[in-house]
């Protein structure tokens, strides 16, 4: 039986590798997380974050044009950041 708190989590996976996104999404769904969204670059991820509140992010470190560290810095410090305190796993 899956914990209902886990089922309600909203996760954003940010990676430019489609295979890695699918792998991470499969693992998260195996834990019972139903709402897993994906972004293929930092710009797309930031736009998704503006429209949807995420419980945590999983971010690749090696992306283009912004890498994972630059994206996390943007999320944490940008004046227009929609969620500067969201938990991030890199």
How would you describe this structure to a colleague?
The protein has helices at 4-7, 18-30, 42-51, 68-77; strands at 10-14, 35-39, 56-59, 88-89. It is α/β, with parallel strands linked by helices and 90 residues long. The protein has a 4-stranded parallel β-sheet, sandwiched between helices.
Query: Which sequence of strands runs across the widest sheet?
Result: 2-1-3-4
What's the story with the biggest beta sheet?
4 strands, parallel
Class per helix and strand makeup: alpha/beta
Poorly predicted sequence stretches spanning 5 or more consecutive residues: none
In total, the number of strands is: 4
Q: Into which percent range does the helicity of residues fall?
A: 40-55%
**Helix and strand pattern:** HEHEHEHE
How would you briefly describe this protein structure?
By secondary structure, this protein is an alpha/beta fold.
Based on the model shown, name its key terms.
4 strands; 41% helix; 90 residues; 4 helices; 4-stranded parallel beta sheet; alpha/beta
């Amino acid at each position: 039986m899956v914990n209902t708190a886990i089922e309600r989590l909203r996760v954003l996976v940010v990676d430019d590798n489609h295979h890695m996104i699918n792998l991470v999404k499969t693992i998260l769904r195996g834990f019972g997380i139903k709402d897993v969204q994906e972004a293929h670059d930092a710009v797309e991820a930031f736009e998704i974050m503006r429209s949807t509140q995420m419980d945590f992010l999983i971010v690749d470190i090696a992306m283009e044009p912004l890498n994972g560290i630059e994206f996390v810095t943007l999320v944490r410090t940008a004046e227009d950041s929609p969620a500067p305190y969201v938990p991030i796993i890199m």
